[in-house]
Design brief:
Length: 168
């Protein structure tokens, strides 16, 4: 009986060594593969968040260009030829042209681009700067916005324009 147990133990040992040699590396490979998959999944998640953040920053910077263009454009309230010398006018127009051309390159929303350019041309049917800035704000936020763009404050207030710049 002892001899039979010895033979069975020997057979079990002989059988279990190759099986162990196959199972242990298999378990190790599975553990490594699962670990790598988890790492890559986490990395992908954070890479996507980073790209979304970068895209958001770019949209915000582009929207700031619209605000800067309108700010420079309305600065003298149509009195720039009275208030600036020729060299200053040339620099002002060059700056306005640069910003206008840049806007035409990046605004994907054709309707918004047309509305901005119509406003800059002072067309009778042009939307107000307030309305346009509200639309640009929606581009940045990428969602519906409850802020009323008519609450944007521009200086000088309309009653003070002639006091600051003189008559047209």
């Amino acid at each position: 009986m002892e001899n039979i147990i010895h033979i069975y133990l020997l057979d079990l040992l002989i059988f279990s060594i190759p099986v162990s040699l196959l199972i242990i590396p298999g378990i190790w490979l599975l553990k490594e593969w699962v670990g790598i998959r988890i790492d890559k999944s986490i990395q992908h998640h954070y890479d996507k968040e980073l790209e979304d953040y970068k895209a958001s920053r770019i949209r915000r910077e582009k929207a700031e260009l619209v605000a800067r263009l309108f700010s420079v454009w309305i600065k003298y309230r149509g009195r720039e030829t009275k208030l600036l010398n020729n060299q200053q006018l040339i620099e002002r127009y060059e700056n306005l042209n640069k910003m206008s051309l840049e806007l035409s390159l990046w605004i994907e929303d054709v309707q918004l681009l047309n509305d901005v350019m119509t406003r800059l041309q002072n067309a009778d049917n042009a939307k107000s700067i307030y309305d346009l800035m509200g639309e640009v704000r929606k581009l940045i936020l990428e969602k519906e916005d409850k802020f009323d763009p008519l609450n944007i404050v521009l200086w000088p207030v309309p009653d003070e324009i002639e006091n600051v710049f003189g008559p047209k």
